[in-house]
Amino acid sequence: MANEEVYQYTPINAETIRLFTIVTTATSISCQVHHHAVNDVPSYCALSYVWGDEEASECVKCDGRTIRISQNLCLGLQMLHKQVGSQLLWVDAICINQSNDQEKAAQVPLMSQIYALAQKVYIWLGPVSDNSDLAMSCLASLNETFSVVDNLEAVDRSSLASYDLPTFDDPIWPAITRLYFRKWFTRLWVMQEVLLAKDIYVLCGEQAVTWQQMVKFANNYRITRMVDDVLQHHKIPYNNPELPDHGFSAVPILDILRDMIEDGRIINCMSLLEMARRKLSKEPVDRVYGVLAILPSEMRNKIRVDYSPTNREQYWHTFIQLFTALIESEGPRALSMVPSRGRCLELPSWCPDFQFENSMNSLGKHYAAGVMPSHSDKAGPSSIKIGPGPGSLQMRGVLMDGVKSTFPLAWKYIDAAQYDPRSAAKVVECEEACLRLSRQIYGAQEEVPVQHVTTLVAGMTVTRSHYSMDQIRADYKLATQRFRDFCKQPSDQQGTQSNANQIAFDRYKSAMKITWRHTNFFTTTNGTIGVGLETIEPGDDICIVSAAHTPFIFRKNVGCETYAFHGEAYVHGLMDGQAFAAKDPVSNVQDFIVQ
Known about the structure:
Layout: E1 16-24, E2 29-37, E3 45-48, E4 58-62, E5 65-69, H1 71-84, E6 89-90, H2 92-95, H3 101-107, H4 111-117, E7 120-124, H5 132-146, H6 172-179, H7 190-195, E8 200-204, E9 207-210, H8 211-223, H9 227-233, H10 247-262, H11 269-277, H12 286-289, H13 297-300, H14 309-313, H15 316-330, E10 384-386, E11 393-408, H16 421-442, H17 450-455, H18 469-488, H19 499-516, E12 519-524, E13 529-533, E14 541-545, E15 552-556, E16 562-571, H20 578-582, H21 585-588, E17 590-594
Parallel strand pairs: 2-4, 3-6, 3-7, 7-8, 16-17
Antiparallel strand pairs: 1-2, 4-5, 8-9, 10-11, 11-12, 11-14, 11-17, 12-13, 13-16, 14-15, 15-16
Helix pairs in contact: 5-6, 5-8, 8-10, 16-18, 18-19
């Protein structure tokens, strides 16, 4: 290594990119680098792969000199060469001088053009492992079999043979499941690489399939009742911090977004940023720069790419820069993004830490807590102003109620409840404790207050559409009884449920899972109940900000007139906008300074 002649990059400007051709992979990879104006590039292919934490242990000879790359990329280039031969290529580790922060800052804004202009984008999932050859070779045939099944929701471990599908013990199911759990699906930068690509192929080992085959299988498989059983039976980690996202979730969403871009439809940038928070990146600033190419131009133009050591160390300034632009664009609803599973102490309470996934699922935009019908068209982002002073927001709204008592919701046990009686017992105990609080508030005139049934799922189905009253009552009754049954016997030891009952249980359970995640059940000073972020405490204020679709929780900072933001909340009786209107917001409005 000491005698290596390191490749010396010729400087390029913000209107030029590098491409290269692989000359040979016989003993080691040898390539030639070319410079091209970005508005006049020849046909080329791009590679999407995992950077990870691998040491740059392999060398590539570029024009006779050495560039060091990871072993995973080295293997990917060898497989790519078999697919495309001497075709021009773009790969970030070679085409961008990784030791030059100024060049990276100039090239990152070009990503939207680089991937959009590529003739093909190849995804490198990695070398053969976990029976991946079997998975890749069977994708097309499984998709063909799935395509003739009338009701995919009826497919489960016991009915596979009747649909001419491999039996539950067949190695294809764990093989293909693990394929979709590869690290590539967790990487943040892949979002823009996939969304902007014209034509995509997926490589694993020496096999290749089209992106559409991956999409079809993910869409089919996740509709069946197979996924949870395969994960459980084969002990495939599901809630792994190192694998925060997986292909069965990411691939269908990315493909929907691809279709929207192709049709010229506008993509909700909040949805993009929430998806990015479930991904992994090497540096905190890349949480912003990694999605820059797919953000609207009016937001993209407000963010300056800066890879200087100071900005990388003080990355929170980039987070504030992005979120300030988002608030100016989206108004109060942007604040649904604030809860974070971890938090940098330098961030103000109203700014999310983009390093971490949102710790609370958004309550959605279908409520209208602070939008009065008479002037809803006029309500907008002006209800929130940046400042006064650095790190502050001024929010205009009305104090509606206060938090009286809280009880943590047992969200971690919902998925495992049907397999583990102890987990089922935790869910049952939690629900019964919340029911006791509800009865204290609403009395015992009915066995289960409808306010309780509704609040447990924030009045919404898993798709965040309104739950009808008749259906929510029936689903609650069935779901709570099933959880009690699981305390005595796991689901795989019980008799087969009717399809309608299973769908009803899954519907309410899924809505519970979304609502309970990192949340507390609470009672209020004025005698109602709600669900809010797990950080809320007795004494917190429940406020409705003009134009916000849900109430917010504020906590007054000690010794001053400012507040800390503790997320949005579902508060029974405050959601439809009528309570806000009844408070006469014109007379009772006040400014909350949130830091």
